[in-house]
Amino acid sequence: MSADPFVARVARDLVVVGGADATSFLQSLVSQDLAPVGVGEAVPALLLQPQGKILVAFVARRADDTTWQCVCEGGFGAVLAAGLERFRIRVDVAIEERAVAAAAVRGAAAPIAPDVPAGVTLVPVAWAGRPAPGAPAYDAFGTEADVAAFVAGLGLPVADGAEYEIARIEAGVPRMGTDLDETTIPQEAGVESDAVSFTKGCFVGQELVCRIDSRGHVNRHLRRLRAVDRADGALAGGAAVEADGVPVGTVTSPGPGVALAMIRREVEPGTVVVVGGTPVVVETLAPG
């Protein structure tokens, strides 16, 4: 991708949590502090397993005083809904998974309300770089017709799926189901800095993540890998990462000459390692 703003059609799922107890219900379960979030505002959050590993990463938007819209990677809405449903006991809460269309807008400021179709909702997302460090980033979701009209009205270049994935890897943004799964501790992927509150009080999985934050460390980190020779081809997903012939990690998100990988913490950024015979440099997940 170039350094210009762009838009891409992406897969997102929506879980709506509503009812008189919706806010207190979610506040007791998810990693983020929802109390300060105003109507129309959104924050990244995690639903963790009791053991502290990630069940689903999502964005929580307060739609009104009694309703939250939880937006996650496509294919994980049912997981999120089921994970919340397990704890819905004697509370006034309804949990509903809804089908939505979605688009990812990167590098362009969100338009003001009159220019957004009534059926489209915008939520800010974490995106450290590409097209530029600090550039605005948001997802738009709604009906297929409304999202298509919204995308057309932006007048931005439309990236295909492969181009969007390269931009995501360059931005160092982990994806649920590839870089994040049920074995991932938040600190391994660096998502705790945005999606975990260490002061809000109890939530599911709190013990492990707080213990690591206060006096521990994780044994692996999500890193970016970049081919020493930029002309090298794609780094295969699932390929072993080796240092001096010893496996030290696995490629999670592959790309042409660039990838994300979960790497042992002993392998410092700047180290040259090998993936499938290709020398690559280990980078932190900051803009490349």
Question: Could you explain how this protein is built, in words?
Answer:
The protein is of the alpha+beta class. It folds into two domains: 6-171, Gyrase A, domain 2; 219-288, Elongation Factor Tu (Ef-tu), domain 3, CATH 2.40.30.110. The protein has helices spanning 22-27, 77-85, 144-154, 161-171, 186-189, 192-195, 206-215, and strands spanning 6-10, 12-18, 42-48, 54-64, 67-73, 94-98, 101-106, 120-124, 137-142, 158-159, 220-227, 240-243, 246-253, 258-264, 272-275, 278-283. The strands form three sheets. The chain has a six-stranded antiparallel β-barrel. The two termini are 12 Å apart. The mean pLDDT is 92.
- From the N-terminal CA to the C-terminal CA, the straight-line distance is 12 Å
CATH T-level fold name of the largest domain: Gyrase A, domain 2
Strand fraction equals 25-35%
So, the CATH homologous superfamily of the largest domain?
Probable tRNA modification gtpase trme, domain 1
- CATH uppermost class of the largest domain: Alpha Beta
Number of domains: 2
Strand order of the largest sheet: 11-14-13-12-15-16
The portion of residues assigned to helices is 10-25%
The H-and-E topology, N to C, reads as EEHEEEHEEEEHEHHHHEEEEEE
Helix and strand composition category: alpha+beta
Low-confidence parts = none
- What summary fits the major beta sheet? 6 strands, antiparallel, barrel
Radius of gyration: 19 Å
| CATH architecture title of the largest domain | 2-Layer Sandwich
Query: For the residues shown, what is the average pLDDT?
Result: 92
Short descriptors:
single chain; 288 residues; alpha+beta; Elongation Factor Tu (Ef-tu), domain 3; 16 strands; 19% helix
